Amino acid sequence: MASVWELANAQLRDLAAYEPGKPIEETARELGVDPGTIIKLASNENPLGPSPSALQAMRATLENAHLYPDGSGFYLRKAIAAKLTVAPENVILGNGSNEVIEFLGHAFLNPGDDVITCQYAFIVYKLLATAFSVRTIETPSPDYRLNLDATLDAITSNTRIIFIPNPNNPTGTLISQRAIDSFMLRVPDNIIVVFDEAYFEFLDDPPGTLRFVRDGRNVIVLRTFSKIHGLAGLRIGYAIAPPEMTEVLHKTRQPFNVNSIAQAAAIAALDDDAHLRDTKRLIDQGRAYLQQQFAEMQIPVVPAVANFVMVNVGDCCAVFEKLLQRKIIVRPLKGYGLPEWVRISVGTMEENKKLIAALKDVIQAQ
Predict the structure, then answer these.
(1) Sheet of 91-94, strand order
(2) pLDDT value at position 172?
(3) What is the mean pLDDT of the segment spanning 119-145?
(4) Residue 115, SS3?
(5) What is the three-state SS of 127-172?
(6) How far is it, in rounded angstroms, from Cα 239 to Cα 163?
(7) What is the pLDDT of residue 90?
(8) DSSP codes of every residue in 288-332
(9) What is the pLDDT of residue 12?
């Protein structure tokens, strides 16, 4: 009998599956402890959880769980459009913004094409390219920052999509508005530029990329409800793009791809400005505390602007395991080509202090 790998698409042989942050439940099972004692600082989740308004909306929607959701997401798209001053036709919903990235592959990529991103960027871009038999060009980031001049130099006749994560995950670095404007003046019009802005709401002075959409450029801006809105478990994200582009992307979307509970929660979360302010305040304070502690411990850290920090601990896998034994989960970055670094999400102040105390113990033991 033929091996299933002989039947599978050839590019899948070398495709590494995406590995998320280690789950709390799995860690609790391995350690034989109560899941409530585990501190997870690995996946950039909101330490305050969902907004009370979103929780109330979810509970109300459960009564109609026997009905299919609104396949077009009419009310959520309308709410997003009103919030961002665009038209509903500019908005497309995804089962997380990751699904919208997959829409792009189905819509615009063919074997032999190129996509461009930066070194140390969100690994899903490369996984997408591999799945579609497309080459990924990674521009160097010697200071852990995306260099848009290097991106322009890397363009080939086969380049179809450029991914610009801003802020970037896992480095936490931000590209300035000036650099973006200069880049957009020079990038060819036949290339689709994707600004991945999953951490947009954490920024004090966020860059304005939606104007390129309003101008009708081949630009798509990705956003998510997984981060500051605290709805990661519902898998709900979206993109803003010119209507002609969203029309193309809709043809790649599965029916009912976003469930009704997620849609209701997202609508409620959009209007809960108090929850967003509380979350941002907590993250700003926690990030400042962590970076100050790392400086005092003389641990190299990349200055960050989102809800996580990237820290050089010497041996990421060893430190990850030792922190795990202390019931704290962080994210080792060996898979990103950063074997000395871990990414640490900002938690509550109590969680941040426990992390620092445990890390000091681990480092002293080394």
Answers:
(1) 91-94, 237-240, 219-224, 192-196, 159-165, 114-118, 135-139
(2) 95
(3) 92
(4) strand
(5) HHHHHCCCEEEEECCCCCCCCHHHHHHCCCCCEEEEEEECCCCCCC
(6) 13
(7) 98
(8) HHHHHHHHHTT--EE--SSSEEEEE-S-HHHHHHHHHHTTEE-EE
(9) 77
The first and second tokens of residue 351, run together, are 């969680």
pLDDT over 80 at 366, yes or no: no
DSSP state letter for 226: S
Q: pLDDT tens digits, residue range 313-334?
A: 999 999 999 999 999 999 999 9
Which residues are within 8 A (CB) of 175 and not within 5 positions of it... i.e. 6 or more apart?
145, 146, 148, 164, 166, 207
Instruction: Quote the tokens at residue 28.
Output: 């609790």
Distant-in-sequence, close-in-space partners of 322: CB < 8 Å, separation ≥ 6: 362, 365
Report the C-alpha gap between 98 and 299 in whole angstroms: 32
Q: What is the pLDDT of residue 156?
A: 96
Residues 4-20 have pLDDT tens digits of 887 778 777 777 777 77
pTM of the model: 0.95
End-to-end CA distance of the chain: 51
**How large a percentage of the chain has pLDDT more than 90?**
89
CA 162 to chain centre: 16
> What dihedral angle (degrees, nearest 10) is formed by the CA atoms of 308, 174, 221, 188?
-150
Q: Tell me the sheet residues that pair with 92.
A: 239
CA distance 254 to 232: 20
CA–CA separation, 182 vs 199, rounded Å? 22
Beta strand ranges found along the chain (DSSP E): 39-40, 91-94, 114-118, 135-139, 159-165, 192-196, 219-224, 237-240, 301-302, 308-312, 328-329, 331-332, 341-345
CA distance 128 to 347: 30
Write down the residue that tokens 């036709």 correspond to: 89
pLDDT (tens digit, 9 = 90+) per residue, 19-37? Answer: 778 889 998 898 899 999 9
Reading the block at residue 332, the tokens are 């080792």
Confidence of residue 43 (pLDDT cuts 50, 70, 90): very high
